[in-house]
Structure formats: structure tokens, C-alpha cells
Amino acid sequence: MVKYPRSLYPILLLILISIGCANNEKNGDSESEIAEVIVPKLAYGINVDTLLVIKDRVKKNEYLSEILLKYGVSYNDIDFIARHTKDIFDVRKIVTGNDYTIICPDDSIQKAMYFAYELSSSKYVLYKFDDSVTVTRGEKEITVSIDTTSGVISSSLWNAIVENNADPNLANELSEIYAWTVDFFGLQKNDTYKALFEEQFVDDKYIGLGKIKATMFFHGRDSLYAFYFEQDGKGDYFDEKGNSLQRTFLKAPLRYSRISSKFSNSRMHPVLKIRRPHHGVDYAAASGTPVYTVGDGTVIKKGYQKRGGGNYIKIKHNGTYSTTYMHLKGYAKGIKVGDHVRQGDLIGYVGATGLATGPHLDFRFYRNGKPVDPLKVESPPSLPIDTNNQAAFDSVVKAYMADLDAI
User: How is the chain split into domains, by residue range?
Assistant: First the structure.
């Protein structure tokens, strides 16, 4: 039997259908007789119709040699792999719990012809044992489907999404999209959301979220839309009018916590027990919670503030704005004064250094050197949809708006 590349199957099928239909017309047959196309079973691009496929998982403290020796691979071949294929994959980095597959003849000997080690859900390293050993990297096909979800918030966005049996990572993605327009620490009960998003599958197994294509967040009295659109080779999220949802500054420097103390000119200090100005916003969060810079800028100070701020970082964003992050447990690896940081970069971790009763971030915002309330800072938007792309964007909005309305 002749075996054809899998990529030709659709074309072959159409040819066979055409031939069958033509013959039927010629012979006056009333019913079509279409030749059967036999599709071979493939694994890692290998036809395994007549082979034995053994799937397993790397066990704790298990080495490559232990796996391969069980399937007849010689010490010489194992040594060659370890010594001479590091540029493709270093076998010392095999991880406990990762899947692997042995492909061998379907007989009692079970001598490995191929060994596939899965680096991730879609990426793998394939070892072929023949007269010589060959090693290649490959990727499985990722299929994408579109799904939708919606919900009503009673406590948090995360809980609402989990209660609807949706991927919890959707909460992270939505918080990223709306980071410039929604204060997720001030969500109100009965706020609602809708989302249309991609789901990724490998071998019919769900591996994670793809791109969120469109979403609507009803917060307070506003319906806040976001549509994904690419222009000039870069994808971004825009509202229904084509304005970018990205702003110069993020709404908050960390995710999923609560405001424990707001900006005030006279606050009772929880440690000193005296009233004094608190020109920042305190975010209560677990020790070690990541802290991100709210905007592009340069680190101008890093150290320990003896006046009570503990470990802190100060970032200058431009000639007008700067921000300070205090009571940190520690700093992002390698960060130092003079470094340029981008919006959303990790800069440190929540702690309780200095004068603090518990772990929290004291976040401060300055305009022309004077403290301002971070919760009241208005940021100018990024560039909107280009006029040359407006028609294409409007078509995307029209289609996705209908999809959202149907959820």
C-alpha cells in the first residue's frame, strides 16, 4: 500500500471524490461510490500503524539511562546522547513528571526505535535509534477553538471565573487587559463580565488559553469593551471607538489584594500611634507577592529607608512623574539604580520591612516632586487605531460585538 504525506490527504480526498463523481456521471450510476482513503496513525510525525507505542512519565530521581536501558538502547548510544547532543537538549535537564514515549516494533523484544521526551505540552525532543543516533526538536500541532464565558461578581473576579468552571488564568488575562481602566481592588458586587477567547489543544487535550479576542466588563455604570486588533505588526486592545486601553501608568502595582489604607494628610500611624500624613496607598497582600512598576522609567533609588519605609525602590518615569514602592521583602533579581524598566516589569516583593504591622506595599506617586493620590491620577491614552486601519477595525468590532451580545 502506498503511504502519502498527511498534508496531502485533503487534496487526495477531493481528487478521489471528483473522479468518483465523474465516473458515476459517465456510467449513469445513481449513487456515488467514493474510494476509501486510509489515514495512517501518526505520533511525532511517525507512522505507527504497525508499531508499539508506550507512554510513560519520568519518575522521581529517574535518569535517561534508566529509561532507555529498559528498552534495549546500548550504553554507547546513551553516552553519545549525553556527550554530543547538548546543543539540542541537555539530558541532565530531564524533569520529573514530564511525559515521554517509546516507539518500538510490535513484538516481545520491545527494542526502542524512537524515544520522544516532551519538553512541554507541544514541544518535544525526538531520538531515533538506527545505524546511528539522530536527535531533533519538534512541535505538535496546536489546534485552537473559540469559547465564551460570562459571570456576575459577588466577591472577586477570580472567584466568579472559577465558579463558572472557566480557566482561572482568564482572571489574570482580563486583569492585564483592563489594568489601565479598571481598579480591581474596587470591584462592586454585581459587576459583570463577558469574554470571547481562544482555547488551545494538543492531541485533543486542553493545554491553556490562547488570545482573548473580545470582552466586556460592566463596572459601576459603565460597559467597558476591549477588542484585540493588530496594526503595524503589533497587537493591542482597543475600546469600541478605537482608543487604546493601554495607558501610561497601570492602575495598581500588584494584583489581587486589598487597599488597607488610603492617601491622607492625617492618618493614625499603626505603629507610632500618632497622626501624621500618609501620602500613599497601602495594599495589603501576602508576603512575597510580586510588585510591578506601573510605568516605563529609570530606577533612581534603591535601598533601606530608615524613616520607616524599609526596603524601597523609586522610579522616575519622566520629567513630571515618579513612583516609590516601600516595605519590600526583597528586590527583583539583578535590579539596580540606573536600570531602565518597562511597564509591568517585576521590581520586588511585598514584605513588612521598616515600620509595618504586617506585610503590605506602601505605594506613592509624585507629580513634579509633590505627592498625589495614586487612585486619582489620570493617565493619557496610548495611540488609537490608525485611520488607515479604521475600516478593518470597525468590521472586527461589529462581528465581536454581536458575539458578546449573544453570550
Answer: 1-39, 41-139, 143-238, 258-376
Classify domain 143-238 at the CATH topology level: Nuclear Transport Factor 2; Chain: A, (3.10.450)
d(Cα 62, Cα 79) in Å, to the nearest integer? 16
pLDDT by 10s per residue, the chain, length 407? 444 444 444 544 454 445 554 555 455 544 445 456 677 788 999 999 999 999 999 999 999 999 999 999 999 999 999 999 999 999 999 999 999 999 999 988 889 999 999 999 999 999 999 888 999 999 999 999 999 999 999 888 888 999 988 999 999 899 888 877 887 767 788 889 999 999 999 988 999 999 999 999 998 788 999 999 998 888 899 999 999 988 778 888 887 555 655 444 544 445 444 444 566 888 888 899 999 999 989 999 999 988 788 999 999 988 788 999 999 999 999 999 999 999 999 999 999 999 888 898 999 999 888 888 888 777 766 789 999 999 999 999 999 999 999 99
Domain 41-139 architecture? Roll (3.10)
**pTM, two decimal places:** 0.65
**Equal CATH topology for 41-139 and 143-238:** yes
Q: Hey, how many other C-beta atoms are within 10 angstroms of the C-beta on 308?
A: 15
Taking the domain 258-376, which CATH number applies? 2.70.70.10
DSSP string, 311-367: EEEEEE-SSSEEEEEEEEEEE-TT--TT-EE-TT-EEEEEB--SS-SSSEEEEEEEE
Rounded distance between C-alpha atoms, residue 399 and residue 407, angstroms:
13
